[in-house]
Amino acid sequence: MTEDNTESTENNAETQSAERVERVERAQSAAPDPLTLTELKARRGWLFSVIYLTLILGLILFLSFVEIVEKNRDVLVGILGVLTGSISSMIAVASGRDPAEIEELKGELSAQQADRAALIARLRDAQISLQLKSDQVTQLQTLMIAELAQLRATQLTESDVQLNRHVAEWLPDQDQ
């Protein structure tokens, strides 16, 4: 009986792994969904804006043929003004320009402008530092040339030079 249990457990494990492999293969072979979440939102926004514009145009046409009652005129004019005021944003969405996306891009642009300004400031500081170093090197070269000219003008003899006693030990005898 234990052999039967072992065999059935092995068979169950094999069938489960085979089922997993089949599921993975089906998932891989299935056509990938070409629409991402952003594209779906954009498509939904575009569709809504087109429907909204159509409703506004229908409302305007309806109101052009139907006479408005005098006591409701102010309320209807106010509502119509609010509805037509949002037409510009709906046209922008329908044409492909999402206002939220534009604001996000403006934020990114301002962040990049700040980075650009920081880099320009760092470049300016580096140029100033480089110019200062160049000026210092020029001054040092001028001073060294002047000192070498003075040193050349003075005549030194061997007796004027005093060597360290350790150096003298390693020099060959010059008496010979």
Kindly, what is the distance between the CA atoms of the first and last residues, rounded to a whole number of angstroms? 112 Å
User: Spans with pLDDT under 50 lasting ≥5 residues?
Assistant: none
The amount of helix comes to over 70%
The Cα radius of gyration reads: 44 Å
Characterize the largest beta sheet: strand count, sense, and whether it forms a barrel.
none
What is the overall silhouette? elongated
- Mean pLDDT rating: 78
Which structural class do you get from the secondary structure elements? Answer: mainly alpha
| Record field, number of beta strands | 0
Question: Treating each run of at least 4 consecutive H or I residues as one helix, how many helices?
Answer: 6
> Could you give the order of the helices and strands?
HHHHHH
* Beta-strand share of residues: under 5%
Main features:
single chain; 176 residues; mainly alpha; 6 helices
